[in-house]
Amino acid sequence: MIITKKQNDLEYLVAEGITAAHCFTTRHGGVSTGSKSSLSLAYTKGDTMENVETNLGILGNAIGFDTDKLVMTLQIHSDIVRAVTDQDHLGLCHNVYPKCDGLVTNTPGVALLIFTADCTPLLFHDPVTGAVGAAHAGWKGTAQAIGARVVEAMVKNYGSRPEDIRAAIGPNVGFCHFETDWDVPEAMIAAYGDEVNAYIQKKGEKYYLDLKEINALCLRRAGVTHIEISDACTMCQPDRFWSHRVTKGDRGSQGAVIVCGEVSK
Fold first, then answer.
1. What distances in angstroms separate CA 41 from CA 8, 116, 142, 176, 181, one per listed residue?
2. Tens digit of pLDDT for each residue in 174-212?
3. Domain that holds residue 252
């Protein structure tokens, strides 16, 4: 299950099957103000860098990571996955990082961070090798199987076996609200075939898609059998999560973070 935890004002979600330190953040528990209130993690939407650094420090203290070993993404809705170490930390502004939508590492102490505000966050942990991964799966990344690309990177770089990997799918815009034109379901059918039709519904001239289940399908095809899925929809709970669609872009960014730990011998 994916459950909610609170530390004072800080609220976040964790997957019970992932033993590495990790979380999916909410809006709550930071110092940002106004439309960015309060735990905004990315310096892109008019917040101050000072607030973002303070918020990341709050999160690091709560979850258990050193912000000097935090590696981020400069997201472009791609299937690009980077294998990183502590040498890839470039500061706390994601704009200075190379473009990608997925990260993997097996370096103890390194924390991986991706950003969302309706898109689907994915976290990965291999308890056998200690490797971890994180991915931002917008609909384009979902159609490009970004989740499978992370699994492949963990296998290639760290010797992970897909059946050992624990995956978690966090809060996103749910089946109830992800309204699109035909181009999105067309891309999913091209990527996954007729099986994906179970997660597409037509209402009038529009289509609704279940991105969580499509990403779960992607992970199952990649050999992952341990998958936990949040039932939270960012558009249903805009006071709890940032939603790009609800705010029309006047928002902060929540994130998903996972920390590589030592492997027990």
1. 18, 10, 23, 26, 31
2. 999 999 999 999 999 999 999 999 999 999 999 999 999
3. 2-172+227-259
Q: What is the mean pLDDT of the chain?
A: 97
Q: Is residue 158 part of a domain?
A: yes
Determine, yes or no, domain membership for 215: no
Question: Integer distance in angstroms from the first to the last C-alpha of the chain?
Answer: 27
Encoded tokens for 203: 């209402």
Within a domain: residue 201? no
Supply the DSSP string of 107-171, one letter for each residue: -TT-EEEEEESSSEEEEEE-TTT--EEEEEE-HHHHHTTHHHHHHHHHHHHH---GGG-EEEE--
Q: What is the pTM of this model?
A: 0.98
Question: Based on the structure, what is the number of domains in the chain?
Answer: 1
Residue 86's alpha-carbon distances to 66, 167, 186, in angstroms, are 11, 23, 40
φ/ψ (deg, to 5) at 212: -65, -50
The neighbour count for residue 186, using CB atoms within 10 Å, is: 14
Give the C-alpha separation, 237 to 240, whole Å: 5
In whole angstroms, what is the distance from residue 118 CA to residue 138 CA? 8
| Residue 159, domain CATH | 3.60.140.10
The answer to the question of residue 217 being in a domain is no
